[in-house]
Specification:
With 635 residues, the protein is an alpha/beta fold. The chain is built from 20 helices and 18 strands. Helix 9 runs antiparallel to helix 10 and helix 13 packs parallel to helix 15. The protein is globular.
Length: 635
C-alpha cells in the first residue's frame, strides 16, 4: 500500500501539500483532483521517486512495478505494435535471454525460458497489444506503421497503450483522455474497470472518474484529503464539509470579535489587565480556521444575441472533403435554428471535425449549398484555433485587439472571468499551458456574441471547475450549438439530440450515450462477423482464379487513394520531423536568452505554422486509409 504520513511537498518557495496523511490500499482506484497548480503532478513525481518529500514519510513497496505514460516519444522506425509490446518489460527481458540461449545453443535454458514466456501469456502478447491499439482508435493497417509516422497526439496514444500493457502493480495516469475521442474514452473506461492493480488517476472528466474510481484524493489549500466513493459522492461529502467549516468559521469569528473587543477596552486598566491577558492567550489558542471557498474562479456566459435569424445556417445535399479524391461525407443535410443543441458522435476519423469545418466555412463544400444568415456570428472552437493565437502577444492585448473599444480595465475584468487574475492577463501566450490557451480562446469567442457555437473538443486541457463553468454557460445560451466532445458529462448536460457521423454519411441518432456505447459494441461485432462470413464464403465459393481477379480489381480501385495516402504520409513524416526539430530547439533554455530572441520568434512561427498543417493532413490521411480499408474489405 501507499502510506503518506504528515507529508509536506514544496516546489521552490511554494508549499503545495503540507502536513497531510492518507493511505491508498492495493487494488484501489483513486482519482487525484484539485485546481491546476495545486500539486497533483508533483505528487505523481514523488510517487515515481523523481521528487523528494520535504517533510514526513511517503512509503510504498520497493518491489512494485510502476507504469506511467511517457510524455515524449522519439521518431522511431519501430512499428506501432512492437513499440506497445515494449511496455511488457518482463517479456522483452525473456526475449533477450532466449536469444542468448539460442546463440549459445543451450537447449535446456531455451526450454526453461519458453516455459516462462508461456507462464506470463507471452505468446498472446501481440494479439493483446493489437486489441489495445484497436480500442484506442488505431486501424489494422496502422499497426505496422513506424512510430515516427504518427503525429504527437497519436504518439501519446501509443504511450498510453504501452503503459496499459505493462504488468504494473501501480499505474499513474495523468489526463489519459486528453488525446482520445469519445469512442476511445468509453473503451478505456471499461479497460480500467477490469484492471486489478492499484490506480491513481488525474482527470478532469467527472463521468470518467465516476465510472472508474472508488476513492478521491483531493488537494485544496495545501491539504490532501482522501474521500471514499466516486467523484459525485466526493462532491456531496465536500459540500457538507464546507457547510460545517463555514458554520464553525462564523462561530469562531464571533468569539474573536468578542475577545478582541474585551482586550481593546480593558488592556490599559490595571484591574482588568489579568483578564485581558487571559483572553489574549485564548485568542492565540483558537484553531486556525479558514472560511469555506465554494465559488469557482471562473464565471462567464455567452451573451444572448439581440438578433437571432431563422434559420441560422443550412447545408443541403452537400459533399464534404478535401478535394476530388478525398470525399469524406456525402449528401449532408442539416438545418441549424436557434435552440438547436446537437452532439456529434462517430468513430475517430469518421469526419466529425470535417463536418464542423464545413459548417464554419473554413472548408469549402465539394458540392451542394451552404446557406448562412446575414450577420451570422459563429463562435468556432478547435485545437486549430488555439494555434492561431498570436504566440508572442499577451492575453490582454489579444482581447483589446478583438474589442478596440475596451479600456484596459474592461479587458482585465473580462479575462478575470476566465481565471486570468492580476498580472496573469499580461502573460505572453507562448508561455501559457494548454488549459490557459483554451480559456483565452473561449474568452475571445464570448466577445464575438455568437448566435451559433461550433465546439470541437473544447474541454481538452480544462480543469473540472472550468468545465463546470462552460456547462453552465452553454445551458444558458439561447443560440444553436454543435458539439464534439469526449467529455460525457458535457455532452449529456448540454445536448438535446445526437447525429451519427459514419460510413460517409450524417444521420440522426435515436438514443443517448449509453445507446451509443451499445451501438459501438454491436457495430464491432457485426463488422467482425461480416469479415468472417466473407472469408468463409470466399474460401467455399470463389475459385483462386476468380479471387485473384477480384483482388486485382480492388487494388486497382484503391490504387489512386493509396497513392494519395502514401504521398500525404510522406509529407506528414517530413513535417513531423521538422516540428520535432523545432520543439527540440525550443526545449533548450539557451533559446530563451535575450540574444536569441529573433531565433525564438522564428521557432514559434514555424511551430504555429506546422501544427495546423499536420492536423489537417493527418485527418485527410486517416480518411484515405479508412476508404482504402472499406474498399479492400469488399474482398
Amino acid at each position: 500500500m501507499i502510506k503518506a504520513s504528515q507529508i509536506t511537498l514544496d516546489r521552490g518557495l511554494k508549499t503545495l501539500i503540507e502536513d497531510s496523511s492518507f493511505t491508498i490500499y492495493p487494488g484501489h482506484k483513486v482519482g487525484l483532483v484539485g485546481k491546476n497548480g495545486c500539486g497533483k503532478s508533483s505528487l505523481f513525481a514523488a510517487l515515481l521517486g523523481q521528487l523528494q518529500i520535504d517533510k514526513g514519510n511517503l512509503d510504498m513497496p520497493r518491489n512494485w512495478d510502476i507504469a506511467t505514460v511517457k510524455q515524449e516519444t522519439p521518431a522511431l522506425t519501430k512499428s506501432a505494435l512492437e513499440y506497445v509490446i515494449d511496455g511488457d518489460r518482463q517479456f522483452r527481458q525473456l526475449e533477450q535471454q532466449l536469444q542468448v540461449a539460442r546463440d549459445n545453443d543451450n537447449g535446456n535454458e531455451e526450454a526453461n525460458i519458453l516455459d516462462q514466456i508461456d507462464a506470463i501469456n507471452g505468446y498472446s502478447l501481440p494479439a493483446r497489444a493489437g486489441e489495445l491499439l484497436h480500442g484506442l482508435g488505431f486501424s489494422q493497417q496502422q499497426l505496422s506503421l513506424s512510430v515516427g509516422s504518427f503525429s504527437g497526439g497519436w504518439r501519446m496514444r501509443l504511450n498510453l497503450a504501452q503503459a496499459l500493457i505493462s504488468r504494473a502493480d501501480l499505474m499513474l495516469l495523468d489526463e489519459p483522455t486528453n488525446h482520445l475521442d469519445l469512442d476511445a474514452v468509453l473503451w478505456l473506461q471499461r479497460w480500467l474497470k477490469r484492471y486489478t492493480g492499484t490506480l491513481v488517476l488525474i482527470s478532469h472528466d467527472r463521468d470518467f472518474l465516476d465510472d472508474v474510481i472508488d476513492e478521491i484524493l483531493h488537494i485544496e489549500q495545501g491539504k490532501a484529503k482522501l474521500y471514499s466513493g466516486n467523484y459525485s459522492s466526493f462532491e456531496r461529502q465536500r459540500a457538507e464539509h464546507l457547510a460545517q467549516q463555514e458554520a464553525m468559521f462564523q462561530k469562531q469569528q464571533k468569539e474573536v470579535k468578542h475577545l478582541t473587543s474585551f482586550v481593546d477596552r480593558f488592556r490599559a486598566k490595571a484591574s482588568k489587565a489579568k483578564q485581558a491577558q487571559s483572553r489574549l492567550k485564548r485568542l492565540e489558542k483558537l484553531p486556525d480556521l479558514m472560511p469555506a471557498h465554494v465559488d469557482s474562479q471562473f464565471s462567464f456566459e455567452f451573451s444572448n444575441p439581440e438578433h437571432m435569424p431563422y434559420p441560422l445556417l443550412s447545408v443541403q445535399a452537400s459533399d464534404c472533403g478535401y478535394g476530388e479524391d478525398a470525399k469524406i461525407l456525402s449528401q449532408v443535410n442539416m438545418d441549424l435554428v436557434p435552440g438547436s443543441r446537437i452532439g456529434l458522435l462517430g468513430r475517430n476519423g469518421a469526419g466529425k471535425s470535417t463536418l464542423i469545418k464545413s459548417l464554419a466555412g473554413e472548408l469549402a463544400l465539394m458540392s451542394g449549398e451552404r446557406f448562412s444568415a446575414q450577420e451570422l456570428n459563429i463562435g468556432y472552437f478547435s485545437q486549430h484555433q488555439l494555434e492561431q493565437l498570436r504566440m508572442d502577444d499577451t492575453a490582454l492585448n489579444q482581447v483589446l485587439l478583438a474589442h478596440p473599444e475596451f479600456t484596459e480595465l474592461q479587458g482585465r475584468n473580462h479575462l478575470g472571468r476566465f481565471g486570468f487574475s492580476g498580472d496573469q492577463a499580461l502573460n505572453v501566450i507562448n508561455t501559457m499551458s494548454g488549459g490557459e490557451k483554451a480559456r483565452l480562446v473561449l474568452a475571445l469567442i464570448v466577445l464575438q456574441k455568437p448566435q451559433l457555437l461550433l465546439l470541437d473538443e473544447p474541454t481538452n486541457h480544462l480543469d473540472l471547475e472550468m468545465r463546470q463553468a462552460l456547462v453552465m454557460a452553454l445551458q444558458n445560451f439561447e443560440g444553436a450549438i454543435i458539439l464534439i466532445a469526449h467529455d460525457r458529462y458535457l455532452l449529456e448536460s448540454c445536448v438535446d439530440e445526437f447525429y451519427l457521423v459514419g460510413q460517409g454519411h450524417v444521420t440522426e441518432f435515436k438514443g443517448d450515450i449509453d445507446d451509443y456505447q451499445k451501438w459501438l459494441d454491436d457495430d464491432k461485432k457485426a463488422a467482425s462477423k461480416a469479415a468472417n462470413t466473407n472469408d468463409s464464403q470466399s474460401s467455399e465459393k470463389v475459385d483462386k482464379k476468380e479471387q485473384r481477379r477480384a483482388q486485382a480489381e480492388l487494388r486497382k480501385k484503391a490504387a489512386p487513394l493509396k497513392k494519395q495516402a502514401d504521398k500525404l504520409g510522406q509529407q506528414i513524416e517530413k513535417w513531423q520531423a521538422t516540428l520535432d526539430d523545432v520543439e527540440q530547439q525550443m526545449a533548450d533554455p539557451a533559446t530563451y536568452e535575450e540574444q536569441n530572441k529573433a531565433k525564438l520568434n522564428e521557432l514559434l512561427s514555424a511551430q504555429s505554422d506546422l501544427k495546423p498543417k499536420l492536423e489537417d493532413a493527418e485527418e485527410q490521411w486517416m480518411m484515405l486509409l479508412e476508404q482504402i480499408e472499406e474498399i479492400m474489405a469488399a474482398e
